[in-house]
Amino acid sequence: MILVKILFRYKHLLLLAAATIFLLSLPVINLFFAKDFKWIGPATITGAVHGDWKYYEPRIREILDGHPFIGNPFLIEYNNELPPAFFFADWLAAIPMLLGLFLEWGTIVNDMLWSLLFVFLAYGILQQAGVSKWLSVFGAELTFFQVFYLMTATVSMQTIFPFYLFFLFSFLFWIKDHKNKKRTVLLILSSTLSFYVYTYLWQVVVTALGLAFLFWLVTKKKEMTVGLIKILGLTTIFSLPLFIFTYLQIIHPYYWDTMQRIGLVSTRLPTAEVFYSGRWVVLMMLLCFFVFCWIKKIRENQMYRLLMIFFVINGFSLIIVSASNVITGKDLELAQHIVRFILVWMPLAFIVFLSLIKDSAAQFKLFCSYKKIIIFVLCLTYLFGLVSYYKGYLYSFFNRQRLWQHIVDNQKMNEPLSWLENEESKSVVVWAEPDSLTNAYIPTLTKHYILGGGLFQLVPSQEIEERYLVSNYFNQLSLDDIKKDFALYAGSGNAIHPAKIYNRKVVLCKFFRLNLFGANCGEKTDPITLKGEKYFTDLYDKYAKEIVPNIGSYLTKYKVSYYVKDRRINSGAQPEKIGMKRVYSDMNFDIYKIKDF
């Protein structure tokens, strides 16, 4: 009887948990309908649709192998270096594995636990906003559905989104009663954690708190202004270890070189994503403005006013951070990362807006026709914006054969990688085809390192280029191949963004007819042309004239111990010709021991 009462009391949360687990399970259940399906054990499906797993899962493995600061999970020479970013989120994701679970099972546990935390926090925010319990359940699930694709990606954004929601919850909680010391402590905690979890998150948090401070300073709310000064001050003090660590990263000799590969560029022009995603934030602000002006109940109710202020401040913070390069002159894929937080903000703001309309239905009915039409059209447009982002979830259904094939390929690598793991008691360097899953899984499923990789780690760019050329020895690279692989060894900061920025300037120059005022607008170009032919011919000459004739010395230089031949990718490779000895073989893979040259 007591159990029934408890279940009835928490029926909304239980339903929310059940719906979340069901949504998580559906893509897996869908795999049973794939052609020639056969269940062969737990294997993550995220790798089939998320490229980020190749970066984050090796970081988790590095923690498990006894490298608390992560360093470099890919290149053995740099495994004790500083990481280019902080690692608190990686440690959180590693907890199930530290408790004894295998990586595959640990990933499944993380999917469930972080997803449940996500929906519970979203539910809590909506409850704090005065939304009814059933609508809060729907809104929390709608928000989860919006970012499902990202929530199933290990570490980012799986562990980061709940911390954003934690901040929103604690911020709203504090706004409702800023004199409450416990609520103040909660906001300080959530703000401080944002610094340690994710670089882009703390930028959003600090901007939101800064905007709130300016708003209440202008409106002469002295108590709230003083409270925010204390919160920002204590958050800064508690974040000092991170600032010190960041300083050590910045003075590292390879830091700025690495940042450029990752995507750091100098530009004051906002990217297209600022407008694509920012328009939905602006649209919601328009809706808030209209109902605030037209509905007296909302305008005169203090709680409703606070909700409006809360969502407008947080919405503005997202736009400001995504376009902050306009002020700083530096862009590190800001808008592409901030849009992820906008995806969380959008459904929460919409559900609260609908709740306000519902509570003010009597006054809304008295609206003249044109006002009703404006609200209806804007809501319909906003709803279209929400729906347009659901393609990530649908992807897992319409590509089930690809998902299944990924799991099959994953399982095929178990035996050769298990052999490598057991054969060598200490970490060694393994050479695999750069574009193979084997190369991606070696740092994840074994304690070993790879020959080519480390694009996002603190490594000099010239070495990344050289490792790319050496690891492609058997592929007989042509000049065109090297051009095609530009982003693989140079990163988006060299291979993608500079051309986009240049072309954006050309388009704007011609659009505003600046050539009439003496400006040279130029013509649109491509990344290869912009970089210059000499860069690529120099790489090809090095490959053909230095590396191929002297492969042995380069393998010695990078301490390579084994070569894994994936017959499905490069069946023509002949390792025996350069003195390698085959020590393992199965239907898909051969492993060769590399002699000392």
Characterise the protein shown here.
The protein has 597 residues and is mostly helical. It contains 32 helices and 7 strands. Strands 4-3-5-7-6 form a 5-stranded mixed beta sheet. A two-stranded antiparallel sheet has the order 1-2. A hairpin with a 3-residue loop joins strand 6 and strand 7 (589-593). Helix 2 runs parallel beside helix 6 (133-146), helix 8 packs antiparallel against helix 16 and helix 10 (199-218) runs antiparallel to helix 11. The longest helix has 26 residues, at 103-128. It starts with a helix and ends with a strand. The relative contact order is 0.10.
Radius of gyration: 27 Å
How far apart, in Å, are the first and last alpha carbons? 76 Å
Average pLDDT, rounded to a whole number, is 90
Helix content: 55-70%
Largest sheet: 5 strands, mixed
Strand order within the widest sheet? 4-3-5-7-6
Basic shape: globular
Total DSSP E strands: 7
What fraction strand? Answer: under 5%
Structural class: mainly alpha
Give the assembly state of these chains.
single chain
Low-confidence stretches: none
Helix run count? 32
